Amino acid sequence: MAAVKEYVLKTPPGGVKNIDQEALCDLLKIDDPSRVIFEQARGEAVVRVFPTNPLMHMRPATVADLTMDARGRIVVGAYYDGSPLRIRLFDPKTGNAQRMAIFGTTGAGKSRALQSVLAACKRSGIVVHLADLKEGQSVPEAVGNVATRVTTQKGAIRLLRRLVDEAERRMKAYGEMGRSGFILGDPDPLMYGVIDEANRLLEKGAPYRDEAAGLIKELGRTGRSVGVGIILAAQAGHLEEMGGSDTLRGMLKEGEVILLRWSSAMMAQLVSDGLLPRGESLQPIPKVVGQVRRIRRWNEAADEDEDEPNSQGMCYHLTSSRPTSMARFFLVGSIAPCRGHDPVILALYGYGPPPGKPFDLDDAPDPEGDVPGGAPAASGRPSVPTTAEVIPPGPVTLADRITAALAGGPLTEADLLAAVNADGHKQIKRGSLRTRVSDLRRDGVIGPPSGGLVTLA
Ligand SMILES: Nc1ncnc2c1ncn2[C@@H]1O[C@H](COP(=O)(O)OP(=O)(O)OP(=O)(O)O)[C@@H](O)[C@H]1O
Fold first, then answer.
1. What's the CA dihedral at 424, 427, 431, 437 to 10 degrees?
2. For residue 248, which of 211, 213, 207 has the smallest C-alpha distance?
3. Which residue, 59, 69, 34, 62, is CA-closest to 48?
4. What per-residue confidence (pLDDT) applies to 399?
C-alpha cells in the first residue's frame, strides 16, 4: 500500500457530477483506468492511484465471514481500500428481515454472490426457500443446503405463495401473542425466499409475471416485520423487465441493493428512480480489468499470453453508506467450472441438514416445463393454470384429485379428505389438502368457503 498516491481535493457545493474517468487518467498520466479511484464525500474528494487495481486479488470467503454477527450482518467482500463489504441479513433493532436485490449483467457474478448469501443463511440458522430458475444450474451446490429448492416458474410461484401464507400465519400468531414484531428464533426462525434469475419470472410475457410481482410486493410489505424476507438475483437491463418498476422501487429504496457489472439502461433507471443521486456517477466496472488502451506499433507482435483478469464480483453496494465506492466479493469457489458440485462451495455451506422444513408445494411432480398463460382468476390475479387444465395424461396431481372429488358436489373438509384418500392414489394429510384447497381458491377453481363446505367455483 506504500505506493498508493492520494490526492485530496475540495469539491464545489453539491459535489462533483459526472466524473470523466478518462480525462482524470489522462491528467494523471495513468493508462490503466482501473488503478485510479475517485471517491467523494461532502465537501471533499479523494483520488487514489494504486500500483495495480486494488480489487484484483481477492481472498476466498471464510465461514467466519459468512456467520451473521450480533448486528445481523455478514462480510461478503471488501472495498477497494480494504474495509469490509458487509450486507445485512437481519436488523436486530427493528426485528426486520431484509429485502435484497443483486443485479448484474450476464457473467457479472450474481450467482456466486448469491451462493455466499445462501451459505451464510445456512451457517446462521436462517431458513431458505430457493427458486433457481436457470434449471437449477445457477446455484447447484444449494441442493440439500436449503429447506426448499425449485427450478421451475411454477414451483417459484407456489413457493412465493407459501411465503406469503407463512407471513400471514405469523402475523396472526404474533397478534394473538400480543406481540408487535418478530423476535429471532422465538418461536420462528428468520426465513428468506430467494429467487435466482428472477428476471425470468418477472419479465414481460412471463407466465406468472403479475402474480409473482404482487406476491413479492406483498412480502416486502408484510413479511419483513414477521421475519420473512425476500432476496432476488436478476439480470435486469431495466426495472420494467422486473414486473414493472413499481414492484421493486420500494424494495430497492429500503433494502440491500448490490449492483455488479451493469448495462447503461439499468444505470439510467436507477438514477431516475432516485436510487443514485442525480448526476452522481459510478466509476464503470469494465469487463476486463487492467486493460491498457494503447496503439501497437507497426511491427510489434501481439502478446498472446497477456492475462485478462475479469471483473466478476466487482460491485457497488448502492444502499450502504458508501454507494459510490467500488467493492468486490470474496472468492466463492473456483473460477474454472467443476465437473460436479464445487467442493469449496460445499465446504462453505458446511455438512449437515439445512435449517427449517421444506414447503409442501405439491404431492406430485411438476409437469415437465412451465405452462404459459392462465386466465385471470376471479380474484383478478392471473392464475397459475390448474394442473387439471394443463396436464396431458401425466402424473395425477392433488389438484386433479380434489377437483375430481368435488365434481359430484360440495363436501365438508373431512369428507373431501376421505374422498381424496379413497381414490386409489397416495394417501395425503389434512395439512396438504388445506394448502392445495387454498391454492385452488386463489386460482378461482374453488369458491369461497360457505357453510363449512368446499365447493367448485
Ligand atoms: N465471487 C466469485 N468467486 C469466484 N469466481 C467468481 C466469483 N464471481 C464470479 N466468478 C466467476 O465468474 C463466473 C460467472 O459468475 P456467475 O455465474 O456468478 O455470474 P452470473 O452473473 O450469475 O451470470 P449469469 O447471469 O450468466 O448466470 C463464475 O463461473 C466464476 O468463474
1. -10
2. 213
3. 34
4. 82
CA distance 411 to 442: 18
- pLDDT reported for residue 401: 83
Q: Are strands 127-132 and 148-150 parallel, antiparallel or unpaired?
A: parallel
Instruction: Give domain 387-454's CATH number out of 1.20.120, 1.10.8, 1.10.10, 3.30.420.
Output: 1.10.10
Q: How many CB atoms lie within 10 A of CB 330?
A: 21
pLDDT digits (tens, 9 = 90+) for 195-245: 999 989 988 888 998 899 889 988 988 899 999 999 999 886 566 666 665
Q: Are 310 and 287 in contact (CB under 8 A)?
A: yes
Rounded-to-integer distance, Cα 23 and Cα 33, Å: 10
**Grid cell 443521486 in the structure block, residue:** 277
CA dist 39 → 15, 132, 255 (Å): 11, 36, 23
Q: Which of 56, 57, 106, 111 to mutate to test the pocket of ligand 1 (most atoms within 8 A of CB)?
A: 111
C-alpha cell at 146: 436449503
Q: Is 106 annotated as a binding residue?
A: yes
DSSP type of residue 364: S
Assigned fold of 73-285+310-349: Rossmann fold (3.40.50)
* 175 carries a ligand binding annotation: no
Which residues, listed in sequence order, are joined to residue 329 by a DSSP beta bridge? 77
- Distance from Cα 325 to the centre of ligand 1, integer Å: 21
What residues contact residue 128 under an 8 Å CB cut-off, 6+ apart?
118, 121, 122, 142, 146, 147, 148, 191, 192, 194, 354, 355, 356
Residue-range domain boundaries for the chain: 5-49, 73-285+310-349, 387-454
Atom 9 in ligand 1: which residue has the minimum CA distance?
Answer: 109
Q: Residue 274, CB half-sphere, CA atoms under 13 Å: how many?
A: 8
Strand partners, 140: none
- The CA R_g of the chain, rounded to the nearest whole Å, is 25
* Highest averaged pLDDT of the listed ranges 139-148, 270-279, 313-322: 139-148
Q: Where are the beta strands (DSSP E) in 245-404?
A: 256-259, 314-317, 327-329
Rounded CA-CA distance 391/410 in Å is: 24
Strands 327-329 and 314-317: antiparallel
Cα gap 182→303, rounded to integer Å: 59
Mutate which of 195, 335, 339, 342 for ligand 1? The one with the most ligand atoms within 8 Å of its CB, which is: 335
